[in-house]
Every structure is written in structure tokens, then in C-alpha cells.
Design brief:
seven-stranded mixed sheet, about 40% helix, iron-sulfur (chains A, B), homodimer, alpha/beta, pyridoxal phosphate (chains A, B), Aspartate Aminotransferase, domain 1, Translation Initiation Factor IF3
């Protein structure tokens, strides 16, 4: 098996495992107690905090451990919003943040606060000027990830931090994807991380609040297990020691995928910034492919990857990141290489991918009930009740029958069509005219340009 | 070393350690993913949930894991309060709940809700009729522990659940101290537990919400590490397998302490219900002893215990449990035996305790600046600025000088005196007249009866 989903959860680093095992003997007691076992636990906790703080680049008393990265985000956002309530209740986030950030934003709205969601360009990056434009006198907090978890694009944290600092607004950086690679530069105020992203155990997050930042903690430091914290800190140090060399190696491997997938597989869009990106993540989308079938096919070939396609998630809506970028979501694959991923595995992935994609396309391209008709002189593709990627497949089939300059209407009630039909037009050089309400679902109008 | 503080955190059970180690290999991936590693993690999670549910006596789909016992309490209380907001915002708790429950109650009050705190008798037990009396038409939730964490007293959960059920009010039972011993009987609605109390790893709590109970979850299931969950479930099963036999054995050992400590050490009060109590916990308080010095002395002799005395906590206030019971808090010691505690260790504890207590008393009884004077014909003990247990020590020194029927005033600004002077009177058969405001602190008036 080749596990290529390190951005979800990295396999436990060997150092984490050793540290965990050792800490189980000394770290089970309550570190708040005065007796021997408690003092020993307290020493372990303090040492882990020192080590993590050094890696993050902060003071030990600015860092607390939490029970997960999501909890760090939640506590961090809530803590600043509560402390700065008198300033106002306006929160700025980017549209491509992790779901834990967006969830906190929704909760804030539910409690009567207001939220501005800053959009991104087609690479997934925000613009510092967009943050500047979003700042208001009542802005309590701005949030920005250090790098995107789905497409790997690195965000302009230094620039955004400067803009926020100029306005006296604290910036919280969700550094979950980048803590293992190095400290976050720039004048951020609050920072969050998650141990399982760098090869530490699950159940450990970290929350850094710079001295001088107003922060209202609703509860004492709360963390999962102390042995897990010790393992998290030890593995962070180990990962950092090899980070520079490993970054060069993984960047070369993901670059291979970026360059060769479009040559190997027809109708593919590689997404995310080609240069300003994390070393280990590469994401692409394949037209006319169902994401779930693709993941299943890759799993059978021994590759574990994830997908932002709608059909692979519980919610049946495509990834909010791909949506915000305005890129294709169908047949989406995120490859995120763990430390130590081998060239052989990547080559084998490139070798099997074309066959897996072709297999899925063949199955989906098989004759389906006729769905096109001509109504009032306009060609109509009736894809109602059909799930992604059928609407786009049927559109591609009929576009040749549309006279140049003429239009075709695609009827669809699949949420993914709203994203994928415009993305298909962009890829194919056709004109996306717009969406119109229909009796059921929507009608997506496309004009044939060439 | 003899670790006698299992009620804070039990040492990791050997089965937990084995299970944790095995689960590190198979349980690091995201159980929500579709590929092999994710499916394997999901299977481990489901199996752990099944095992824990069987031990608790509920359906697997009624149980979720949380990142700690405190988090289970917090989520459980908030979830019912939110779901039943239309019924009302009244919450009932007992005065001797764990601090996590009392903290949730304070948060609820801060958010505009109302809270009734039901008192306890001198053994620490609540009365079901007191809960009946506290119920109101706008009561959203009642909370009661299965057994008290400081004195071991078992609460009448079955009776209180019946009273609540009659009024249509859900009862949340904080079963942290008893889950390892057996299922909680009675018609409770919500139940919480903490793995580190039964010998599982830290960082795992459980929250059970019975089908049909209205509950608003603000977030998805959130837990620490999956390996820790697997270890928690495995150790719960292992602990339960030996629970009946171990309960008999530990009960005999704590009974020895209950009976022999008052014979070995003068001026001791053993607190908590002598019969309806947890097998492994016994708590006593020693007059004229400073809790911190006592713990330090016992630690030097190799015993790790905890204390509800004011001088041993950060807050400098005595344990809210001892306060609610109206018993002595000074020189307080809680012995909570872990599974497997040996007779030899207990005998050694009984052998060293008298010397340790005597040593502390000797140090504190050493000449101090004269603090008694006669003012307006009344004997006044000026203990202002002096910390527990000095006020009580000075009171005991002068009571012989007070004529029978006469009174003595003790001036003190130590919060513990408010609890300990009445408790001393109760123990010594003297009359506690009451507290009066003084220029500094308070004057506690005691009448000599015999």
C-alpha cells in the first residue's frame, strides 16, 4: 500500500512512537499534583512545551496544548473574539480555510457576529489587498491559513499580517499544514497547529497566543494525553531536523506528478499554485470521472488518496476550496506525500493512474438513457436526477451538434454542476452564459465558441 | 512508591498499554476516509464503541468518545440545555459535583441561565426529595454524580432519576468515579465518564445520550487519539472483568483505614458515608495540621495522596465538597487505592501516618507570637494574617481558659476558618455561636459548653 494522504493524517513518526512508549511510564499522573508522580508529569509537560515553542518560534508561556488542531482553532478564534468584543464583532476569514475555521465563523454568525469571507484567485491564493479592503473599524479578528490543505497553495501571510497590524487587528494563522516544514514568518498574533499533520499522534493540537494579544480563555488548558503531547513535541523536533532535505525531495516528486499527469491522462486540470506551494501536495481533477469510483479504483491498486469531489463526501457538495477557486471538482484527486514517500511509489502511481481513469470513464461513458432533445429550437440536455459527472459528460457529447454561436441548455439538479459546467467551459474554451431557474434544478446555458 | 491517588488518575492498566501499542499501527488514519487505512481505523473505532457501550449498558449509537471526561461533561450539559431551551433555562446540580460540572453551571449562569445547587448531608449524599423540591416547570436538566470523587459517597441515582423522570426532566449522571466498577442503574438520560479514572489513557472521555433525549450537538464527535480510544475500551473491559473481586478486596483495605486511623491518630474525623461508598476511596481530616505539610510528609515517606485542604490548592479555598458537607477541611487526606493496591502498602501507610501527623503538629504547635488578649471581658484570639490550621490550633489552646458558658472570639481572615471552626466545635462538643464582621476578616464566636 502507498499512503498518499498525509495532509489528512500523517503516519506516526517512529520518534513519536518511541517517545509515546517512554512517556506512558512517566506521564500518566496529573501534572497539577504535588507528589512525585505529579511532579514527573509536570516536568515532561514543561519540556514538551519548551520543545514545541522552540519549533514554532515563540515563548513557552505563549503556547498551550489542546486536544486537537480543530479545538485549537475553535479556542483561538473564540478567545480573541470574546476579548475584543468591545471593539466589534466582525470576523474576516478566507474562503478556503479549513472547515474548523469556517465552522467557527458560522457559530459566530449564529451568535450575532458578522463575517467577511475573502475570496481567492484560481490558484487558491488570497490577496493581501483583499484583506485590507475587508478590514473595518469593528473588525475583531482576521484568520488566514499558512497554506491550503487541499491544493497546497502557500498564502501571503507576511503581507496579510502587515496589513492587519497596520489596522491594529490581530491575525490568527492556521498553520496546520506547515508547522512540520518550518516556523511561520510574519507578525501573526495567534497560531494553531495539529500534531497528526506532522507525524505526531492524533489528539494533540497547539495554540500560540503572542504576549500582548488580548485573549479570553473560557477554560483552563485542556489536552488529551500527556504521553501523546510528549510524542508530539519529540516528533516535531525530529521532523524539523529532516525538513529541509525532505522538502526538496518531495517537491521534486510532486513536480513530476504536476507535469506528467496532464501528459498521461487526457482532460485533466492540475490545480493550485505551481510555485508557491507546500512540498508534498499536488491536486488535479479529471473530466468525465466520478470521484468516488476513482478513489475506489486507486485504493484497489494500493493507493490511498483523498478527493474534493462531491460524490466522495457525506454532504454531496463539492469541496468549498475548489468551489472558491472556480476550478473543476469532478474526478478530483489530492495526492499528499508523507515524509519518506519513495520515487518508486510515485512512479507506480503515474503508471496506474491512466488505466484507472480510463476504466472509470469507460464505465460512465457507456450508453445511458437518451437525455438530449430539442425544445424551442434550443438543444436541451436533461440531466435531472443524474449525479456528477454525468451532466458534464452529456454536455461534452452534444457540444459538437451545436452550431458555432448557438447555445445548449443543461438541466441539472446536482449541486456540483454549478461548479463543473463553468469549469468545463473554461477548460474547453467555450462560453458559459449563465444559470437560469428551471422547473426542477437549474438550467446552465453554454454557447459554443469554437 | 505507593500511589494512592487513583481517583485523580489511575496508573495505566497493562491491557491499555498493550492495546495502545497495537492500535498505533492500525489506528492513525482518519476513520472518515474510504481507503484501506481509513476503513481499518473505522473498524477499530466501531469495535471500541461497541465494547464501551456494552460496559456502560447502552446502544453503540448512543455513545460518543470525547477528548476528556471534563469535555464529556461540558458537551453533555451544553447539549441538553441548548435542545431544551424552550422548556426553560433552569439547571439543577448537587453542591458536591466535580468542578467540571460546577464550571458548566457557572458558564450557564453567565449566559443568563439559572442554577439550583442541591445541598448534601454530613456524609456527602444528596436526598432525592431535595431534587424533587428543586424541580421547576422551567427546569431543563438535572445533574448528579454517581459517586463523590473526594469522599467516595455513593449518590441515590436511581431515586433521583425516578423523581426527574416523573417531572419529564432529563438527568445527566457524571459516572467518572464509578464506570470502572459497573453500570449505573436507574433511568438516567445522559451519562459521562473518563478513561483515566479506570486505568485507561488520559485524553479519552465518553458521553452517552439515550435515544429519545433531546440533544443539540454543536460539533461532530471529537476525540483525542484513536489508539487511546482503543486502549480505553480494552482496559474498561479488563477492569470490569476483575471489578467484583477487586471491589471486595479494596473495600476491606479502605475499611481498615476508616477504622484504624481514628485509633492511631488523635483528633481525626473520617468523612463520607461508611457504607454506601466506592470501594477504593477513604478520606479523613486531621485537626491542627496543615494539609500541604502533611502531603509533603507523606510524599517523603513514599505515599502519593491528595487533599481537599485549602493550603494544597491554587485557590487557597478549601474543597467545595468538604465545605458543602460541613466537615473539617484542615489536614485533609484522600486515599484512593488503585486496582492491585497491596495490603502491605496499606499497612505501611497506617504505620507511618501517626508519625507524619505528629511531626507536622509539633512544628505548628511550636511557640508562635502571642495572639490572645482579653477585650471588653471577652477572650479574643487574634489570628489575622495566619493561615489554616493556626486559627483552630489557637482556639484549641485557649478554650480551657474560657469559663463554661462563656465565649471566645477568633479573629481570622483565612477563608478556611469559616469551615473549620464550626467543624472543630462539632467534633469537640462546643457551641458555634456564629460569625460576625470585624475590622479585618471575621470574628468567629464559640461558647464553651463543657
Amino acid at each position: 500500500m502507498s499512503y498518499f494522504d498525509a495532509a489528512s493524517a500523517a503516519p506516526l513518526h517512529p520518534v513519536a512512537r518511541q517517545a509515546l512508549s517512554a512517556a506512558l511510564d512517566d506521564g500518566w499522573a496529573d501534572p497539577g499534583r504535588l507528589y512525585r508522580e505529579g511532579r514527573r508529569a509536570r516536568m515532561l509537560l514543561d519540556a514538551a512545551r519548551e520543545a514545541a515553542a522552540e519549533a514554532v518560534g515563540c515563548r513557552a508561556d505563549e503556547l498551550v496544548f489542546t486536544s486537537s488542531g480543530a479545538r485549537a482553532v475553535q479556542t483561538g478564534i473564540a478567545g480573541v473574539l470574546a476579548a475584543r468584543r468591545r471593539v466589534g464583532r466582525h470576523l474576516i476569514v478566507s474562503a478556503v480555510e479549513h472547515s474548523s475555521v469556517l465552522r467557527s465563523a458560522e457559530v459566530h454568525e449564529g451568535d450575532g457576529g458578522t463575517v467577511t469571507r475573502v475570496g481567492v484567485d484560481r490558484t487558491g491564493a488570497v490577496d493581501a489587498q483583499a484583506y485590507a479592503g475587508a478590514l473595518r473599524p469593528d473588525t475583531a479578528l482576521a484568520v488566514l491559513q499558512s497554506a491550503n490543505h487541499e491544493v497546497g497553495t502557500v498564502q501571503p501571510v507576511v503581507e496579510v499580517a502587515e496589513v492587519c497590524r497596520g489596522a491594529g487587528v490581530p491575525l490568527l494563522v492556521d498553520a496546520a499544514q506547515s508547522v512540520g516544514w518550518g516556523p511561520v514568518e510574519g507578525g501573526w498574533s495567534v497560531l494553531t497547529g495539529s500534531a497528526r499533520k506532522w507525524g505526531g499522534p492524533t489528539g494533540v493540537g497547539l495554540l500560540v497566543v503572542r504576549k500582548g494579544v488580548r485573549f479570553a480563555a473560557r477554560e483552563k488548558e485542556e489536552f488529551g494525553g500527556l504521553p501523546a503531547i510528549v510524542a508530539a513535541a519529540a516528533s516535531l523536533r525530529a521532523v524539523r531536523a529532516e525538513a529541509d532535505r525532505e522538502a526538496v525531495r518531495l517537491r521534486e516528486l510532486t513536480e513530476r506528478i504536476r507535469v506528467r499527469v496532464p501528459a498521461l491522462v487526457p482532460d485533466v486540470e492540475v490545480v493550485g499554485d505551481p510555485v508557491r506551494r507546500l512540498p508534498g501536495i499536488v491536486t488535479f481533477s479529471c473530466l468525465y470521472v466520478d470521484g468516488e469510483a476513482l478513489l475506489h479504483g486507486l485504493d484497489q491498486e494500493g493507493f490511498s488518496v483523498s478527493s474534493g469531489s462531491s460524490c466522495t463526501s457525506d454532504t454531496l457538495t463539492p469541496s468549498h476550496v475548489l468551489k472558491a477557486m472556480g476550478v473543476l471538482s469532478e474526478g478530483n484527486v489530492r495526492v499528499s506525500l508523507p515524509l519518506g514517500a519513495t520515487e518508486e511509489d510515485v512512479e507506480r502511481f503515474l503508471a496506474v493512474l491512466p488505466g484507472v481513469v480510463a476504466g472509470v470513464r469507460e464505465k460512465l461513458g457507456a450508453p445511458v438513457a437518451p437525455v438530449t432533445l430539442v425544445r424551442d429550437d434550443v438543444l436541451v440536455v436533461d440531466a435531472l436526477g443524474r449525479r456528477c459527472p454525468i451532466p458534464v459528460i452529456e454536455l461534452a457529447k452534444v457540444i459538437g451538434d451545436v452550431p458555432v454561436g448557438g447555445t445548449v441548455r443543461v438541466l441539472s439538479d446536482d449541486e456540483a454542476a454549478r461548479l463543473d459546467i463553468p469549469a468545463w467551459c473554461e477548460m474547453r474554451g467555450q462560453e458559459y452564459v449563465g444559470e437560469e431557474p428551471a422547473d426542477h434544478g437549474s438550467a446552465y446555458v453554454v454557447r459554443r465558441v469554437s
